[in-house]
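I'd like us to work through together how a protein chain folds, taking it slowly. We need material for that, and I hope you will provide a protein of your own picking. Go ahead whenever you are ready, and we will take it from there:
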Amino acid sequence: MGVRAPVPEPEEGGGTSRITLRLPEHLKPQIEEAAGRMGLSVNAWLVRAVTAALDPGGPPQDRGGGRPIGRNYTGWVR
């Protein structure tokens, strides 16, 4: 499994686009916390989240839960 290069902070005039994103009120503090845990700005965290959503075949990204994605098991085993 390869390592994904970090997403750089966008530079002014560096080929970026600006959008307005309306979030449910309860998501904003969760996003801020997740970005802070990863040492990223909210913008950089959102860029990574969108990139991961558009590239589902890539390695899972930390979504702030502190555990790998897709590795949880539930139920009974004999």
